[in-house]
Amino acid sequence: MPRLELNPNFTDPDAFYAALTALHRDRSEAESERINARLILLLANHIGDQRVLEEAISHAGLAGDK
C-alpha cells in the first residue's frame, strides 16, 4: 500500500514556491481560495489512493496544532 511521503521530495522547492506565490499575486482572497481548491483536487486526483489522501488530510488537520 502506498504511504504519504513526508520526507522532502521536491525537485526544486524554491521554483514551486515562486510559481505558487506568483499564481496568487494580485488575486482576491476568494480567487485564491478557488485556486487552492482546484489545485487540491488536481493533486488529489493525481495521487488517487484514498488511504494516502486520508493520511494527508489527517496530517494537514494536525498542522495547526503544532
From TrEMBL:
InterPro entries membership: DUF2783
Entry superkingdom: Bacteria
Protein name: DUF2783 domain-containing protein
The organism of origin for this protein: Halomonas campaniensis
